[in-house]
Specification:
The complex is a heterodimer of chains A (about 120) and B (about 140).
Chain A lengths: L1 H26 L7 H12 L2 H23 L2 H7 L4 H10 L7 H17 L2
Helix pairs in contact in A: 1-3, 1-5
Chain B lengths: L1 H7 L5 H28 L6 H7 L3 H21 L4 H7 L2 H12 L7 H18 L11
The chains are: A mainly alpha (about 120), B mainly alpha (about 140).
């Protein structure tokens, strides 16, 4: 049950983050942080198809995380979600066309190695 | 040209650092409250309704409110910075989470996990030295 929840968490988080990035990039940079402007930006973002898919995926991710912390320690559940960095960095490179240089790849590698130790 | 390359590697803007810090803090606090609340509730089964019902537990509700703050700051950050920059930099929350688990939730954090924390910190530091946004910029 624990590992099934981890799998669901990683898949849903990856879909949620990649689609949220696509949606926010489509919307453009947020410059104005006054309450009215933020509300207006949220209204526009809420109608973005990518953000809607992202929100559904994040809801699945959240409820699987809620269930996971009820049966496993937080110091296990939270770092395990970092395994999503592998598919996310791959999607960032291939789908979002981000320039992922050797330092980012090395950094992600170190983070993942750390996550492996954290789960011991 | 070397000048263009240097511009891309300039230090991360203050706004990006501020939002990264807000994202990290709200994430750790939210997860801590959520975990404490779920632990207090005990085994609630696998029903989606039971999970939705758990949202009304005060500690879970506080956790969810903080995680909403995390979502909003994270979304704002992603509107100007690369996903492959934002995700690893905000991963510092894993380090802070280990301390929070040890201090506030009395979880046993083994030596292997502390080694992991050092590796995560090294990875985060390395990624933080790269440009925050690379899309649409000159090569």
């Amino acid at each position: 049950m624990k590992w099934l929840l981890v799998l669901i968490l990683i898949c849903a988080t990856t879909v949620g983050d990649v689609f949220r990035s696509l949606g926010m990039r489509q919307h453009g940079e947020i410059h104005d942080f006054r309450p009215g402007a933020v509300g207006s930006a949220l209204g526009m973002v809420a109608r973005n198809g990518y953000v809607i898919v992202s929100t559904c995926a994040m809801a699945i991710s959240f409820f699987s995380f809620m269930k996971l912390v009820s049966i496993a320690p937080m110091s296990f559940a939270v770092p395990m979600s970092a395994a999503a960095f592998i598919p996310e960095t791959l999607f960032a490179r291939m789908l979002l066309k981000e320039a992922v240089d050797w330092r980012r790849w090395t950094g992600v590698g170190l983070i993942l190695a750390g996550v492996v130790f954290i789960t011991q | 040209m070397p000048e263009i390359r240097d511009d891309r590697l300039k230090s991360v803007p203050q706004k990006t650092r501020l939002f990264a810090a807000l994202t990290i803090l709200s994430n750790v606090a939210g997860n801590s409250f959520l975990t404490r609340g779920m632990q207090q509730l005990g085994d609630i089964g696998n029903s989606p309704l039971a999970l939705i019902g758990a949202l009304f537990h005060p500690l879970v509700a506080i956790g969810v409110a903080l995680l909403i703050v995390w979502t909003l700051t994270h979304m704002a950050l992603l509107s100007w910075a690369d996903l492959s920059y934002v995700m690893p930099v905000t991963a510092i929350s894993y380090v802070v989470t280990a301390f929070a688990a040890r201090i506030f939730l009395n979880e046993v954090v083994s030596p292997a996990r502390w080694i992991g924390i050092v590796l995560v910190t090294a990875g985060v530091t390395l990624v933080g030295r790269t440009a925050a946004s690379t899309v649409g910029k000159p090569e």
